[in-house]
Amino acid sequence: MSQNSRQFHLNAFLMGVGHHEAAWRHPRTEAHRVLDVAHFQELGRIAERGKLDSVFFADGLAVGPRIKHNALAVFEPVTLLSAIAVATERIGLIATASTSYSDPYNLARKFTSLDHISRGRAGWNIVTSAGADEAANFGVDGIPAHRGRYERAEEFVDVTLALWDSWEDGAVVLDEESGIFADPDRVHTVDHAGERFRVKGPLNSPRSAQGRPLLVQAGSSESGKEFAARYAEAVFTAQRTLAEGQQFYRDLKARVVAHGRSADQLKVLPGIVPFIADTQEEAEELERSFTDLISPEYALRQLSTMLGVDLTEHALDAPLPPLPPLDEIEGNKSRYQLVKDLAANGDLTVRELIGLLGGGRGHRTFAGTPEQIADELQTWFEKGAADGFNIMPPYLPGGLDDFVDRVVPILQERGLFRTEYTTDTLRGHYGLGDPGNRFTEELAHDVSA
Amino acid sequence: MSQNSRQFHLNAFLMGVGHHEAAWRHPRTEAHRVLDVAHFQELGRIAERGKLDSVFFADGLAVGPRIKHNALAVFEPVTLLSAIAVATERIGLIATASTSYSDPYNLARKFTSLDHISRGRAGWNIVTSAGADEAANFGVDGIPAHRGRYERAEEFVDVTLALWDSWEDGAVVLDEESGIFADPDRVHTVDHAGERFRVKGPLNSPRSAQGRPLLVQAGSSESGKEFAARYAEAVFTAQRTLAEGQQFYRDLKARVVAHGRSADQLKVLPGIVPFIADTQEEAEELERSFTDLISPEYALRQLSTMLGVDLTEHALDAPLPPLPPLDEIEGNKSRYQLVKDLAANGDLTVRELIGLLGGGRGHRTFAGTPEQIADELQTWFEKGAADGFNIMPPYLPGGLDDFVDRVVPILQERGLFRTEYTTDTLRGHYGLGDPGNRFTEELAHDVSA
Q: What's the pLDDT score for residue B177?
């Protein structure tokens, strides 16, 4: 067994019975499991068997156009991860939550609670909720402006980080003799008074085993990348080719450094949807068996949402109509750009485009043998396109089983991935140290002055 | 074994390592368990062993004056109950959440998620958050007015109930053959546009096994009782004497009927803090051993918060100073009234009052043998003061163990309490049927028209 000096990170991005649009209709899945918490606990245990860094559940605050063909979000992810936390020991637990439709105090509390329940394994994927359907559930008309969403997100995260610092390590004294439960000198108000939020603090929960939850982000717009460079510790990203992946990686790392952070404080994790089989031919056949089950009606709605253009009445075998310019898109700009690039390259019909997108909603699909998948990951890692990968099994639990049991051992054999956990926390798995505490540091300053 | 025609209900109100202020300092507890999710899972299993209807966790959105002597809320209760849900099978799971500092969509979603995780065992204790310390964490200055809080709560609950109806039973079709996941004709927008909220819907989660979570309430002000009469299905209440309990029970049931509901659609559950021992003398000695550990500094702060009067510099052995009139109190009016009554009856010093209040924060403390406690509960039930009880163990897990293993068998022997669960849902345990669905009823109307 060789031992590389550097190893990469693996997150399992889990969704219902699989990432593929039609996963729930495929014979390799049992559709009713989308409603069964035991299914999701099993997924957490499988990921932990593979020594993965973390599992991740995305979220949205509306049903959207998915009702008829796919209900993706039965469970709210933090409550779901709480149930997974107590069925596992080491795997990290990352959930999406929106800065546009919640309050810093509630969000900080919810994630700290998960962090206590899991003993330091919680992570927050920060989203700003672009959808008009989400806005309509919170009294907001139309699509909230991109810029305003990110400004709010920045102040939101600043407050949240302050609340997470409000209890220093060791503030919980538990001295039964003197009757002192907590040391009030180590519990701080945050007294935030900004443009959008006024929050006094302290948080009503002590600091967790990993200090605070890991910050994750996935936006790829200009504001998204700047936001990530400033705050994120891991970034999920959709890159289709090695060259694009390298370009994104260089760009983001340079921005991290420009923000005064060390480049390795942010881990870049491109997504991949792996179809795994004994031969490449069988893997491609497996992928086709999923594509054949995509509902065109559903796919047209998905595509319309991605592009902000109504295609639901569009002929399937006609080419994609002209798209509006990027700067008119208020939603997910990176998904939009991806579809535009794909369509421009291939002169594709809508049906062909749907097939390309169906597996991973814009993420890279890869069909191959375990060795081919391992080669691909190794290449991206060694050629500077990734610090690790966001594994998006097209069907569950089988697709995760196969990745863990067939691909991970090859990566371990090559020294590219851990064979045992070496830490107990999510921040530890990602090689991130103690996040520090503004209040503890101030105290240290006072002492040295 | 005799068999009464009517049986009562039992909820275990759980808090850290016990309800008593000084529980964490007592040799019968281990203080560090307040941070341990396994402790709370064990409490859920003990309550389930006793066939109790439910466990309940209160919550507040600020640390308040408790930091130094007691940190009560390490865990956010819904994430905590999610962890308990997967460690139990039948016990109901009730959590406090505030209508003042959350959105209906988020709250409806969170409780539905718990309801799915527990397969129909979730309940929501509706609070309106009276504290100025809570307000300051959400950009609100001062103590929010009583009236405004309840007006918001009404609209909030109306929207939440509509969202919970937005998916009809059977809306999830899961037809793999046709590719139909959900029937869009059975998933409805709610299109609420009120004074405080605009919410389009539908909720992004299907209807749960019990239809929707149980609604619980605990306010005892005029607005609180009216609110309960209109919405609540169970009410936690602090009544110190049988006569007061009977009066409250009659009053509330009359209000329920005045709102067009059947009296048994709301269960009245007075609180009791039981100190259990082999003899009454030993039980009283046990209670004293807890009272002796109360920190006067902490108790004065608690009392000041209850009364809205700063007593922190008040001499312990002096009588209580004159209190402001009830209508100037914006906070918890029932607690205020209780303290005022106690002080008026007894010409008590502050120290004596603290001892009386220390066990249950205003709830009735009862020290006795298992038989005496069973007698007391039976009397209240048979004399029309209760449909069941809110059991508040002064120390945990021992105080819950003793209630379940020593008092419950006596109640079962007398036919007053179930010997086995007869339903799988929280609503079922409380004898409440299917809550109905406005959309399904409309459909039924259409068909019969």
A: 87
Token pair, residue A268, equals 């870049």
| ipTM value greater than 0.95 | no
- The Cα A268–Cα A254 span in angstroms is 12
Question: Contact A117/B73, CB-based, under 8 Å?
Answer: no
Mean pLDDT of the region A413-428? 98
- What is the C-alpha to C-alpha distance for residues B176 and B188, in angstroms, rounded to an integer? 23
* CA B415/CA B417 separation, integer angstroms: 6
pLDDT of B169-224, one tens digit each?
A: 999 999 988 888 899 899 999 999 999 999 999 999 999 999 999 999 997 889 99
CA B37 to centroid of chain Cα atoms: 20
Question: What residues form DSSP beta bridges with A396?
Answer: none
Report the residue of chain A nearest B202, measured CA to CA.
Answer: A63
The C-alpha R_g of chain B, in whole angstroms, comes to 22
Which chain A residues contact residue B61 at CB under 8 A? Answer: 105-106, 109, 204
CB contact under 8 A, A61 and B106: yes
> What are the CB-based long-range contacts (under 8 Å, 24+) for B74-77?
B74/A113, B74/A116, B74/A205, B74/A206, B74/B16, B74/B34, B74/B35, B75/A113, B75/A116, B75/A117, B75/A205, B75/B37, B75/B40, B76/A109, B76/A110, B76/A112, B76/A113, B76/A205
What number of residues does chain B have?
Answer: 449
C-beta separation of A19 from A359 below 8 A: yes
Instruction: Print the SS3 string covering B49-103.
Output: HCCCCEEEECCCCCCHHHCCCCCCCCCCHHHHHHHHHCCCCCCEEEEEEECCCCC
pLDDT score of B321? 79
8 Å CB contact between A421 and A90: yes
**Who contacts A119 (Cβ-Cβ below 8 Å, separation ≥6)?**
A208, A209, A424, A425
In this predicted model, what pLDDT tens digit does every residue of A191-224 receive, in sequence order?
Answer: 999 999 999 999 999 999 999 999 999 978 899 9
Residue type at position A201: G
- Of A117, A136, A184, Cβ closest to residue B200: A136
CB atoms within 10 A of CB B119: 18
C-alpha span between B271 and A157 (Å, rounded): 40
Position A315 scores a pLDDT of: 80
Question: Which CATH fold would you assign to the domain A9-285+361-448?
Answer: TIM Barrel (3.20.20)
B314: distance to nearest CA of chain A, Å? 20
Is residue A88 within 8 A of residue A48, CB to CB? The reply is yes
Neighbours of B185 (CB within 10 A): 11
Alpha carbon distances (Å) from A136 to A65, A139, B98, B332 = 14, 5, 22, 34
Q: How far apart are CA B224 and CA B217, in angstroms?
A: 8
Tokens found for residue B374: 């069973």
pTM: 0.92
CB of A245 within 8 A of CB of A342?
no
CATH code for the structural domain at B9-280+362-448: 3.20.20.30
Q: To which residue do tokens 């269960």 refer?
A: B267
Asked if A82 and B79 touch (Cβ cutoff 8 Å), the reply is: yes
Mean pLDDT of all residues in A124-143: 92
Nearest CA of chain A to the CA of B387: how many Å? 31
Using alpha carbons, list the distances in angstroms from residue A97 to A56, A86, A104, B99. Answer: 12, 21, 11, 20
Q: Which residues pair with B365 in a beta bridge?
A: B273
Q: Half-sphere exposure (CA, 13 Å, Cβ side) for B66?
A: 20
Q: Which one of A74, A82, A100 would you mutate to disrupt binding with B, by most B Cβ within 10 Å of its Cβ? A: A82
Task: Say yes or no to pLDDT of B42 above 50.
Answer: yes
* Interval A373-395: pLDDT, tens: 999 999 999 999 999 999 999 99
Alpha-carbon distances of A355 from A59, A316, A332, B70, B176, rounded to whole Å: 24, 11, 20, 58, 19
